[in-house]
Write a structure and sequence with these properties.
With 105 residues, the chain is α+β, with helices and mostly antiparallel strands. The chain has one domain: Nucleic acid-binding proteins (OB fold (Dihydrolipoamide Acetyltransferase, E2P)). The protein has one helix and five strands. The longest helix has 22 residues. The radius of gyration is 19 Å and the shape is elongated. It starts with a helix and ends with a strand. 12% of the residues are buried. It comes from Flavobacterium ginsengiterrae. This is DUF3221 domain-containing protein.
């Protein structure tokens, strides 16, 4: 009976670990495109970026995520940017948590 309980606990832990790993589906990548709009937030802002392939990304940019004030830039509507960070998708939107502002033109 003790072995059965141990096996049950091990199976439960393994199931938990596998499910947690499958939930996190973030990838680090680069998004390039034109800034279409900007929404100010509490700790930064969200820029709507339209790529050359007509994909839309919502880029969350904050001082903390880009590594401090020396790396932080306030983008403007019309800027052509290249952003690096963690990408994730919801049902109908693509998001990027920006960790580096690569270029602004």
């Amino acid at each position: 009976m003790k072995n059965l309980k141990k096996i049950g606990v091990i199976v439960l832990l393994m199931t938990f670990i596998v499910s947690c790993n499958s939930v996190k589906n973030n990838s680090v990548d680069t998004v390039s495109g034109k800034v279409e709009s900007i929404e100010s937030g509490k700790d930064g802002y969200t820029a709507k970026v339209n790529t050359d392939t007509k994909e839309v990304y919502f880029a969350t940019i904050s001082i903390v995520n880009v590594g401090g004030p020396q790396n932080y830039k306030q983008l403007k509507i019309g800027d052509v940017v290249s952003l690096k960070g963690e990408i994730w998708k919801t049902d109908d939107e693509k998001h990027i948590k920006v960790t580096q502002i690569v270029s602004v033109k």
